């Protein structure tokens, strides 16, 4: 089969990009054309029902049966006019990808077949979805799961060559009401946040009645030629290369970052962007990333629930469109060892219904007090629940990134930039409240915050959670993750923190303190209490690890241990109090995450064994045989002993590495058998990490050495230089 690599290389070198045509030269003319957006709602709905739907979207008001029928019928009409024949509830189960189950509009009736979409089918469905992960929430005898319409995310049409389907974004819950997906808890967290943030806003502005979180997700990814990908069983089955010596040229010249985009890639980007834009995903930015064949795209930020739906949809579109271009898009956090990994930066802020970004410093001192309140509460929330935030980004694939030398470390810290650090220090050390009380001049007590922050451009790229001018950026999220997990945590801890803040401020006011002084007093207290989480230096350095340790910050490097934070008493109380997760749901999620962890390692271990045994070792033996032939020939020709030295030395070296590879594979297999017998998921996951995964490095190291020795023409796996530099 070594010819698979050869044919793949030939194929990859002769690719012709398909022609890409934008639906119109102006994006504004086709943006959202596949979305049942407010404009189309207006066209297809009666005025009454339109207003009801808008109220449901904006304020979560309920829609009755008649209205649902009317809306369903309008959606059907619109989508059929665009060529849709089927509809589906579109949801995000805990598998990590999105799920659909298509039904056709077509229905037989006594007057002959008709096309039908009833309100009941829009509002709720019961997919036979018993094999989605549920962590024990559903027994087989009560396996029912329901999908329920989320009107706040608009319906859209998914297009493919074969046909078009109307997709209805939904939550996915068990018969008992427990969440089985990512969206349901996120919506609950956003609800808690809205309430808590509005309460705090009332200290400053009585006109604010709603606060939403905004999210802009930067998505990093790698591209690889489809034929080369298919010639690598490790990539195809695990999403990453388990073998492969580093290419002589990697990213050391920094010549890829922001460089000109290769033509073939450019054509792919434009193609998937067009599809995404039609789906209302406001993609704005595209560029090369640091590693060869690594890229990034980013949309304009949106309301968070929509932003996450859009990101999930985008990943799907990127994968589908890649096929047309004979690419495979790699969303794995670390497809190539020794080369930068991929993340998904989550840019987050809070925006009021009056249009104010609560994390943007204001023009007046009064606005700045409001800014400081939300800013400092965010820091305090992250300080309180850093372990939970760490847990929310933990996965087997993200473990390769966190703590590795080119990604945010597994230590959660916050970067603020010099100016804001100085502001916080000043508040902390000043005797503001005393001074203010005397002078009755509060506003002089608040340090000036420049509206345009210098650090805005001077980013610290090594921080997992950075303030970037008017938003916080959580950079530790993995490229393949559903952002809902960390965003559910972030918004819940923020909601919880704001509730506590309000209580503390109110207490002081009740005691007779002036409101502004009460606010500032608590802000000052929080600055002091959360100081340890602030770090401005190089997050990748060993110094920081040491310092973080002395500060008492957690540095949990592996997923199974990081996940403990999901079921601690503190977390359970937090989520129950804010009505986001019940204890049972948390335990279910914990179980699912652990299972996901060890199952993926199990697959990696199996693939590693198979590729080593059936591809790497046979190739080495083939080359060894050729060398033996050579030695024999040299001997027969009567050549001196010295002339045999080189081939014999190579044969020796091959044997040495081969022996280690084979032994390690066998040991790993034994270890896997032992580990598989462990019942408890946490124990099993830890054992998979410590006893099975621990063999990966040795196997790989020696296999990669072999790659460097064996005749290139018999090596079966496409090499890094081919995967990364063929454009
Ligand atoms: P970079 O971080 O690569 O320099 P930007 O800061 O311009 O890029 O933007 C990154 C993402 O942050 C984009 O998706 C952008 O829309 C988003 N963003 C900008 N402002 C906000 C905000 N207030 N809230 C949430 N996301 C935002
Ligand atoms: Mg960014």
Strand content: 5-15%
Name of the level-1 CATH class of the largest domain:
Alpha Beta
Give the overall pLDDT as a whole number.
Answer: 91
| Structural class determined from secondary elements | alpha+beta
The number of distinct β-strands equals 17
| Rg from Cα | 29 Å
Major sheet: 9 strands, mixed
Tell me roughly what share of residues is in helical segments. Answer: 40-55%
Query: In CATH terms, what is the architecture of the largest domain?
Result: 2-Layer Sandwich
Tally of distinct domains? 3
Ligands in the model, by name, code or SMILES, are:
adenosine-5'-diphosphate, magnesium ion
CATH fold name of the largest domain: Creatine Kinase, Chain A, domain 2
Unreliable spans are none
Number of helices: 26
Termini separation comes to 24 Å
CATH-assigned homologous superfamily of the largest domain? Glutamine synthetase/guanido kinase, catalytic domain
Shape: globular
Word description of this protein:
There is one protein chain. This protein has 727 residues and is α+β, with helices and mostly antiparallel strands. The chain has three domains: 31-181, Ubiquitin-like (UB roll) (Roll), CATH 3.10.20; 191-581, Creatine Kinase, Chain A, domain 2 (2-Layer Sandwich), CATH 3.30.590; 596-725, Four Helix Bundle (Hemerythrin (Met), subunit A) (Up-down Bundle), CATH 1.20.120. It is 50% helix and 13% strand. It contains 26 helices and 17 strands. Strands 9, 10, 11, 12, 13, 14, 15, 16 and 17 form a nine-stranded mixed beta sheet that branches. Strand 16 (465-467) and strand 17 form a beta hairpin. Helix 22 runs parallel beside helix 25 (696-709). The two termini are 24 Å apart. The mean pLDDT is 91. Bound molecules: adenosine-5'-diphosphate (ADP) and magnesium ion. Magnesium ion binds at residues 218, 345, 473. Residues 85-177 form the GS beta-grasp domain. Residues 182-616 form the GS catalytic domain. One of its GO terms (biological process) is glutamine biosynthetic process.
